[in-house]
Amino acid sequence: MKLKNKRVVITGASSGLGRELAILCAARGAHIIMLARSITKMKTLKDEIEQLGGRAVYESLDITDAEQVHLTFQAILEKFKRIDLLINCAGVGYFLPLTETNTEEIEQMIAVNVRGLIYCTREAAQAMEAQKCGSIVMIASLAGIITTPKSVVYGATKHAVIGFANGVRMELEKAGVHVTVVNPGPIRTPFMNNADPTGTYRKRVDRFMLDPRRTAERILHAVNTNKRTLNLPWYMGIGSKLYQIVPSVFERVCGPFLRMK
């Protein structure tokens, strides 16, 4: 997919990886539709994109509200007539032991990471089926493949995303719609402020953390090449494959690393 003049919808666009993706897509000539809860941050980003010669609009959206998602996507289609690329980037996580994770935190992770992603994908998929083309990116996580202590609920939601994406891919392939799943390791973004408020985990894995701009570039390259799955960084992708083949051995050998949270 060449992005020039394409309509690109990005959830969670106000900060972090979503913000970087919006900037890069705009730089490649796409018309960006930013969706997030923070109007202030999106307005600032819109101004930045336009100062660089790009095009962007934004809409405040709570993706956990199915009716609001439906109405927002209908408004997008009425204005732009099509959606060429949806990037499901909105996400939330709390790195806590299961016994210390409260109900509100559990519900929020499931609502944003799973239900919200499904709602947005359903709306975009309907439009793309009618168009007979399009691409959908789902930002999952390596935690969805290798779920580690203190991220069991978060990992479960990302495991759900991976399973959902695999089924949706087969449903939409005859309509010419491509689905890419991205499984990144920890990224140096504001996501960590909620997930790891003490900063302990960030300090332990700082040298392994991904740069958000470079990650965004890799994601767009994956879209351009119709890549099915992107694991980042590459060596963690190899680790995930070894885990699927010999999980008990992998846990025993890599135990100290898996317990860094």
UniProtKB/TrEMBL annotation:
<dbReference type="InterPro" id="IPR057326">
    <property type="entry name" value="KR_dom"/>
</dbReference>
<dbReference type="Pfam" id="PF00106">
    <property type="entry name" value="adh_short"/>
</dbReference>
<dbReference type="InterPro" id="IPR020904">
    <property type="entry name" value="Sc_DH/Rdtase_CS"/>
</dbReference>
<feature type="domain" description="Ketoreductase">
    <location>
        <begin position="6"/>
        <end position="190"/>
    </location>
</feature>
<protein>
    <recommendedName>
        <fullName>Ketoreductase domain-containing protein</fullName>
    </recommendedName>
</protein>
<dbReference type="InterPro" id="IPR036291">
    <property type="entry name" value="NAD(P)-bd_dom_sf"/>
</dbReference>
<dbReference type="GO" id="GO:0016491">
    <property type="term" value="F:oxidoreductase activity"/>
</dbReference>
<comment type="similarity">
    <text>Belongs to the short-chain dehydrogenases/reductases (SDR) family.</text>
</comment>
<keyword id="KW-0560">Oxidoreductase</keyword>
<dbReference type="InterPro" id="IPR002347">
    <property type="entry name" value="SDR_fam"/>
</dbReference>
<dbReference type="GO" id="GO:0016020">
    <property type="term" value="C:membrane"/>
</dbReference>
